[in-house]
Amino acid sequence: MGDSSVHGAVDRATDSKTFESAARAGFAVSGVLHLLVAFIVLRIAFGSGGNADQSGALATIAQQPGGPLMLWCAALGMAALALWHVAEAIVGKHPSEQGSSRQKSDDRPAWKRGKDIGVATVYFGIALSAARFAIGSGKSSGQQNSGISGMLMQHGWGKFLLVLVGLGVAAVGGYHVYKGASKKFMKDLRVSGGTFITAVGVTGYIAKGLVFAGAGLLVIVASIKADPSKAAGLDAAVKTLGEAPFGKVLLILAALGIAAFGAYSFVRSRYGRM
């Protein structure tokens, strides 16, 4: 199939209201997961356990009545959102809004297309995790990350790779902080904003960015010190934050920020540009 045929097929797919609705549902799923992570962070702040990451949120859903069905719905929503980002990499941003005037992928910088593919990969990963928890084979992402990090730390090139990963995660965190502080997230919405939308967008992006940045820095430090337990991702970052002076207060603030990002995800599900 040639490039024009692929472009035409993606054009037709993104004209589908069903596909768009499924992708919007993916943002709603993200909102639920962030609210659950915020709840887990609060539990940690007050002395309870839990994994403060997506796997912890998915495990919480799995334990509820009808959990497997909800997880399959979550997997479908996240997969649809991932496919939508793949479509944006091919035919341009916001394909359902631009019609015949949409910007083609070869008119966009390669890094922007790469960003869409990267975001799609993350969403596909969450969809796969949801499916695994639905069938009862889900695992803590923190434990998996620690295991992989431990193997990589046995080699010099592995430590170097982990440092690069840490720098990448920290850079993503920095971008989230910038996007929140500059209110660039408003470009993703069809509405001009308002007190609530602006508040949850700014707070959510900055809070999530700081957590990502912390996780990235922990990976770098863990690689240097050869400590796999500190390279376990967001869960390790949150629990390290709790060990700091005034850790309880910091965890509560982090929970509120993550919850704000969850609220913004619901806003994007309703008003996001697609």
UniProtKB/TrEMBL annotation:
Highest taxon in the source lineage: Bacteria
Alphabetical UniProt keywords: Membrane, Transmembrane, Transmembrane helix
InterPro entries associated with the record: DUF1206
Transmembrane segments: 25-46, 66-87, 117-136, 156-178, 199-224, 244-267
Domain DUF1206: 25-91, 120-181, 204-272
Keyword Transmembrane: yes
Membrane listed as a keyword: yes
One family name in Pfam for this protein: DUF1206
Protein name in the entry: DUF1206 domain-containing protein
Source lineage: Bacteria, Bacillati, Actinomycetota, Actinomycetes, Mycobacteriales
